[in-house]
Design goal:
432 residues, 19% strand
């Protein structure tokens, strides 16, 4: 039995990880968020109630589940406390269930200002970031000048580090971006107040998880975004600012890789992408518009419309290889109900006319390819809300079987709707 299960997105994000994490937390003792920031958005639907989370792990709605924000996450305290207050207003005892790593780098107002000023300066070449300061915060982490959660409790270090960092940020804002600067005193005083509220939640997450694992606890590691947005392995530079592959679950939580027993890859039955960047199977026709409408394809964090297209087996196969995915959860199968014919990208045609089943390593190479499609019969019976695999239309089963064959991975879970109950579980990750 796997004690550590990693849940990642295998496309460009928005695959429905939040629902799946929430479903699996029925079987776990702890959930750890290991990368990203409040640029992520996980939507949970339980009965008639919808919850959108950005920083807090999806297990927060479960009794007896401890939630951790690991050191791999860049943390906006404003965003964190807004989320906490929203949940607590609904009766969720967040401060009893949530713990935050000493090692989380903080997102400051100057990070947000820099992020937005850069996108504005890039103009038509903008990357399509959320403008929430995620990238600049990761830059400061790598440059070893970040202000981290633990620094807040060493008064002289906090003020000194904050002043140095804000001086640097304000210099860039004023002299390179010609943008307004940010007042130091206001930021310092706000951080001091937030640090007092945060202190009861702050722990050494690596040690806490080690104790749980020593006691045979089951832990779920929750990723954000998707593998194709990984800063090293995604469609660079149109990527996020952190590593989204499964291996980063170890780095971003302080748990050794030997404890990661099973990797679940979340994949939509079609493909979507938010923001700029290459998207080989994107549809600009009525079918693409229909997928967007039926699938309610708008970003949970920004509200931006998602670009929609056919399933890209070449891209997904690459993602699965990079993260050693053990099994798949296919989401939004019900969005494909009512189509006479479906298409799946099985290869890319290169400019010279040859074909490849390997995803090119650069966006320049991707820009020159044409998807090669295989047609599969659709179905008109509804799959929405089904919980038994045998209830699926025969052609829906055939479609799933073909996806599994093309990406060389078993399908262990099928999601047929947004509610946690609208799920077909063929093999449970913690029993794999």
């Amino acid at each position: 039995m796997s004690r550590g299960v990693v849940v990642i997105g295998t496309q460009w994000g928005d695959e429905g990880k939040g629902k799946v994490v929430d479903l699996l937390t029925e079987e776990v003792h702890a959930v750890v968020r290991f990368q990203g920031g409040h640029n992520a958005g996980h939507t949970l639907v339980i009965g008639a109630e919808k919850t959108v989370l950005h920083l807090i792990p999806a297990g927060i709605l479960r009794d007896r589940v401890q939630c951790f924000i690991g050191n791999g996450v860049v943390l906006s305290l404003d965003a964190l406390f807004n989320e906490c207050d929203t949940l607590m207003a609904r009766g969720v005892p967040v401060e009893q269930r949530l713990r935050v790593s000493l090692g989380c780098p903080l997102i400051l107002p100057t990070h947000v200002a820099l992020d937005q000023a850069r996108e504005l300066k890039r103009g038509k070449s903008a990357l399509g970031t959320t403008g929430r300061g995620i990238g600049p915060a990761y830059e400061d982490k790598v440059a070893r000048r970040a202000l981290r959660v633990g620094d807040l409790y060493i008064a002289s270090k906090a003020d000194e580090r904050l002043a140095e960092l804000m001086d640097y940020h304000n210099f860039l804002l004023a002299n390179y971006y010609d943008a307004p600067t940010v007042e130091f005193t206001e930021v310092r005083d706000n951080l001091a107040a937030q640090a007092e509220r945060l202190q009861p939640l702050v722990v050494d997450v690596s040690s806490e998880l080690g104790i749980l694992l020593d006691n045979d606890a089951r832990i779920l590691f929750e990723g954000a975004q998707g593998v194709m947005l990984d800063v090293d392995h995604g469609t660079y530079p149109f990527v996020t600012s952190s590593n989204t592959v499964a291996g980063y679950a170890s780095v971003g939580s302080g748990v050794g890789p030997g404890h990661l027993g099973y990797v679940l890859g979340i994949v939509k039955a079609y493909t979507t992408r938010v923001g700029a960047g290459p998207f080989p199977t994107e549809l600009h026709d009525a079918i693409g518009a229909r997928l967007a409408e039926v699938g309610a394809e708008f970003g949970a964090t920004t509200g931006r419309p998602r670009r929609c297209g056919w399933f890209d087996a070449v891209a997904v196969r690459s993602s699965l290889r990079q993260s050693s995915v053990d099994g798949l959860c296919v989401t939004k199968l019900d969005v494909l109900d009512g189509h006479d014919e479906l298409h799946v990208c099985t290869a890319y045609r290169l400019p010279d006319g040859s074909e490849t089943t390997v995803m090119p390593a650069t966006v320049e190479a991707l820009a020159g390819i044409t998807p090669v499609y295989e047609a599969l019969p659709g179905w008109h019976a509804s799959t929405a809300g089904l919980t038994n695999y045998n209830q699926l239309p025969p052609t829906a089963k055939r479609y799933l079987d073909r996806l599994a064959e093309l990406v060389n991975a078993p399908i262990d879970i099928v999601s047929t709707g947004p509610d946690r109950r609208e799920t077909i579980v063929l093999r449970h990750p913690f029993e794999a």
